[in-house]
Amino acid sequence: MKRLLALLPLYFFLVINNSFAQKNEPSIINSFSDRVFPGKGYLPLGDIKWKFKTDGKIFSSPIAKNGIVFIGSEDGFLYAIEEKSGNLKWKFKTNGAIHSSPSIYENTIFFGSFDGYYYAVNTTTGKEVWKFKTGGENWYSDLRILGTNPNGKPMDDLWDFYLSSPVVYKDNKSASVLFGSSDGNVYSLDAKKGSLNWKFKTEGPIHSTPVLDKNTLYIGSWDAKLYAINCKTGKEKWKFTTEDKIGFKGIQSSVAVADGMVYFGARDPHFFALDSETGKLIWKYDAESSWILSSAVILNNIIYVGTSDTYALLALDSKTGKELYRFRTSGYVYSSPAISGNTIYFGDFTGNFFSLDILSLGKISNFISTDSRKKHAAEILKNDQLDFTYAAKNSDLSQYKETKKVMDEFYKLGPIVSSPFISNNTVYFGSADGYFYAIGL
Questions:
Q1: Can you say how many angstroms the Cα of residue 134 is from the centroid of all Cα atoms in its chain?
Q2: Distances in Å between the alpha carbon of 112 and those of 93, 119, 132, 195?
C-alpha cells in the first residue's frame, strides 16, 4: 500500500468554539466519549513516573477516578492501580483476555472479557457486583483476510484488537450499561442489576464501542454498517452502509459526535461525516488504502484521527473533510488520540508514544519508546519504519501462518494500540509488551 511523506502541511486555522462529543455527568466516565482533557499550552512528555507489569499484552485503554487508574490485560485481569505510586490496589480475575476498555458509573466499573461475560465490579473493593453472559466473545474470523490462503478454514483477523467497551446511559429514572458483542447484538442492561433491558441484532460481530449523544447510541459492526439506535427503546433510527470487499470490510472505530454530525473511520477505507439525525452522508475522506481503526477526537472544528498503512495522524476540517496536515510516524496508528491544552497524545505500532503540538501544524513534538522497541527495532524495522515485506524475510505472505509470524515479530516492539487517558498531569497507556505506563507531563 502506498506510503506517504512524513509531513504535508496544507493550511491550518483555529476557531474559538470547542466541539466534541457530549460531556458525561460527573458520576459517569465512559470510554471514548470525550477525549479532550483539561490543560493549557503545549505539554511535552516528561519522565516515566512508573510502569506496571502485567502478564499479557495490553489492548485495553485506561480510565482513572479518585486517584486510581484501571486497565485490563490479556492475562485476564482488570487492575486497579494507585496513580501516585503505581502500586496495585486490587485485581479482578476473569477467565479470558480483557481487550475491552472499562467505564465507570458511581462506584462501579464495567468491562467485558473473552470468557463471554460483561462484568460490573466495585471500584473500591474489587468485588463482583454482577456479570452478564453474552452469546460468546471471540476474535473476528473470515475466509477472506487480505487474500491469504485459509485452506478452507476461517481465519482470525490479526488486526481485530478490541472487544466492545461498555458505556453508561442515564436518564431521569435509571442508568443503563450499553455495549456490543461478538454475537452481533447491542445490549442494554440495568446498571445496578445487570438485567436485560433490550438487545438489538446486527448482521456481524460488534467490537466497536458505542458512543452516546442525547438519547441516541452510535455503533459500528463488522457487517460494515454504522447504526443509530434509540438508547431507551433499542429501536433503529437509521443505518449507514460502508463498502464490503476483501480485506476492507468492517467498522472497528468509535464515532465522534459534534455540531449535528457523526464522524467515524472504516476499513473500506474512508473517514465519513454523516448527519446525526438522518444518517445522510455529508462528506467522506479517501484514506488511500489505509484502514482507520482509531477513533477520532475533535477540537475547534478540526478532526484528529490515526491511519494504518499511511502511518499518519491526520488533521481534517470537520466541515469539509479537507486535509489540513498530517504527521507521519513509524508505523500503524491504531491508538485513539487524547488532547490536553494544545497537545495531542497517541501511540504507534512500533512502540513509540508521541506528544504533538497541534498549533505548530505538527512540527513540534517529542516521543518516548517502549523498552521493547529499543531492544528489537534494529532487527525488525527497516530504516526505523514498519515494513511488512522486509519483516517477512521472503516468506510467502499469501499463507496466513506466515502473515501471523510477521505480526508476532511486530509484537516484540511493544506496539501501542491502547488509547491514552490523562489525569493529574500524567498520561497513561498500555502496550503489547505487557506494561502499563504512567508518563509525567
A1: 21
A2: 12, 6, 9, 15
Are 316 and 305 spatial neighbours (Cβ–Cβ below 8 Å)?
yes
Place of cell 449507514: 240
- Kindly state the cell numbers that stand for 27: 458520576
What do you get for the CA distance between the two ends of the chain, in Å? 36
Q: 113-137, pLDDT tens digit by residue? A: 999 999 999 999 999 999 999 999 9
Residue 43 has pLDDT above 50, yes or no: yes
pLDDT(15) > 70? no
pLDDT digits (tens, 9 = 90+) for 296-341: 999 999 999 999 999 999 999 999 999 999 999 999 999 999 999 9
**What 3-state DSSP class applies to 49?**
strand
Residue 271 backbone phi and psi in degrees, to 5? -115, 130
**Three-state secondary structure along 372-426?**
HHHHHHHHHCECCECCHHHHHCCCCCCEHHHHHHHHHHHHCCCCCCCCCEEECCE
Question: Nearest 5 degrees, angle CA 53-CA 58-CA 59?
Answer: 165
Element (H, E) at 106: none
Tally the residues of the chain: 441
Pairing of strands 338-340, 36-37: parallel
Cell numbers standing for residue 362: 505538527
Max Cα–Cα distance, the chain, nearest Å = 61
For residue 398, what pLDDT band results from cuts at 50, 70 and 90?
A: confident
Count of other CB atoms within 10 angstroms of residue 364: 15
Please give the grid coordinates belonging to residue 394: 521472503
Question: Whole-angstrom Cα distance, residue 355 to residue 135?
Answer: 40
- The residue type of 324 is L
Q: For residue 229, what are the β-bridge partners?
A: 217, 236
Contact indicator for 186, 217 with CB cutoff of 8 Å: yes
Q: Find all residues with CB under 8 Å of 26, minimum gap 6, and list them.
A: none
- Distance CA(280)–CA(262), nearest Å, equals 10
H helices, E strands: number in the chain: 3, 36
Q: Which of 329, 331, 260 is nearest to 298 (CA)?
A: 260
Residue among 244, 215, 241 nearest 227 (CA): 241
Under the banding of pLDDT at 50, 70 and 90, the label for residue 152 is low
Which residues lie below 8 Å from residue 349, measured CB to CB, with a gap of 6+? Answer: 331, 332, 333, 334, 386, 410, 413, 415, 416, 417
Report how far residue 267's alpha carbon sits from residue 250's, in angstroms, rounded to the nearest whole number: 6
